[in-house]
Fold this protein.
Amino acid sequence: MSLVFFTSCSTEPINDAFFQETWKLTEWSVGISMDLNKDMVSSTNLLDEIDCGNNETLVFDNQGTVVSNLTFNPKVDISLINASTNAYDFFVECDREGVLSSASSYTKNNNTIIINNSVFNIDNNELTVVFENAVDIYNEDFTAVVATKDLTLVYTKI
């Protein structure tokens, strides 16, 4: 799953100190509990379970521009190995190729922010976006997609 923001400009200042800070990716979830790091603690947050080095941030300015830095972009393949028990197998490959940074315009409307048609919900110090049906779930031998899952990303103000 890759997120790409395209460059665009906005001319009307957004006078909201709320966005004069940096937001860090703190959750990457498809809603499946897992224990990939074998610490006997399951989590639905992939960031709790892998050691891929997450430094992804969103930085908003009051000119309507958001910059995405150090994008977290692992290759994640998921297979359903037992439908009756909802058992899954995960194959995660960390992105070692480099960093993707980009800029885009955004608009703010009450408790939402829109970036490239993606709606981020604001709740206190968190921004949450859900990409519907963004992650394919394969059969056990990865020959067919058997389902899809929503991908939820949560950013926390730092």
Q: What stands out?
A: The chain has one helix and eleven strands.
